[in-house]
Amino acid sequence: EAGVAQSPRYKIIEKRQSVAFWCNPISGHATLYWYQQILGQGPKLLIQFQNNGVVDDSQLPKDRFSAERLKGVDSTLKIQPAKLEDSAVYLCASSPGSYNSPLHFGNGTRLTVT
Amino acid sequence: RKEVEQDPGPFNVPEGATVAFNCTYSNSASQSFFWYRQDCRKEPKLLMSVYSSGNEDGRFTAQLNRASQYISLLIRDSKLSDSATYLCVVTGGADGLTFGKGTHLIIQP
Fold first, then answer.
1. Which of A60, A71, A92, B97 would disulfide-bridge B91, Cβ 3.0–4.6 Å?
2. Nearest-CA neighbor of A44 among A97, A91, A87?
3. Is B96 in contact with A41 (Cβ distance < 8 A)?
4. Nearest-CA distance from B17 to chain A in Å?
């Protein structure tokens, strides 16, 4: 089974620039998550999709972050404009749908904002 | 948002020793529990689910104490390759799925 695919692996941008990350979940997985992981901390949920609907975006900084999963498959996460504190690894994960199901993570995108 | 707390460590343990660490959660409505392992600069990977009756997978034993609201992970006969960060995950209720900050384990030769 193919895993969760993410791109790019690395991105370096200057503050106030925009950036977008892409994620393709495991085929058939209804639930897709975007997490932000700052060095030394656990992953923090940014947004959770169930198919193409948003389940939880309570911790998404909506003034600068946006995400979509238009067809209920792959997803993009955008930051506009970026701040220094956005430097982190952005992890995408998917699961079959039940909260009892463990998550499968992609390799992540390491973002550095200078 | 409810909390999931872990001792960040690091736990420095000699090879072959037994090590255990806990994770406490504040949401009594939590329903599912997992331990994930994360190697340096890698993504988290599922280590094991935690069942109410406790469960064992080789050298690893996970237990749940609902009364005191914590889960534990025990590693016996530790190997150098066990060095990693161990993340506790708690799900259920209105808070959805929440990660702890992780416990850093270093197995020393």
1. B97
2. A91
3. no
4. 25
Phi, psi of B93 (to 5 degrees): 75, -170
CB A74 within 8 A of CB A23: yes
d(CA A55, CA A13): 30
Q: In this structure, are strands A109-113 and A10-13 parallel, antiparallel, or unpaired?
A: parallel
Q: How do the pLDDT tens digits run along chain B, 109 residues long? A: 558 999 999 999 999 999 999 999 998 888 899 999 999 999 999 999 998 889 999 999 999 999 999 999 999 999 999 999 999 999 876 557 889 999 999 999 9
A59 touches chain B (CB under 8 A): yes
Question: Which residues have C-beta within 8 Å of that of residue B52, sequence separation ≥ 6?
Answer: B64, B66
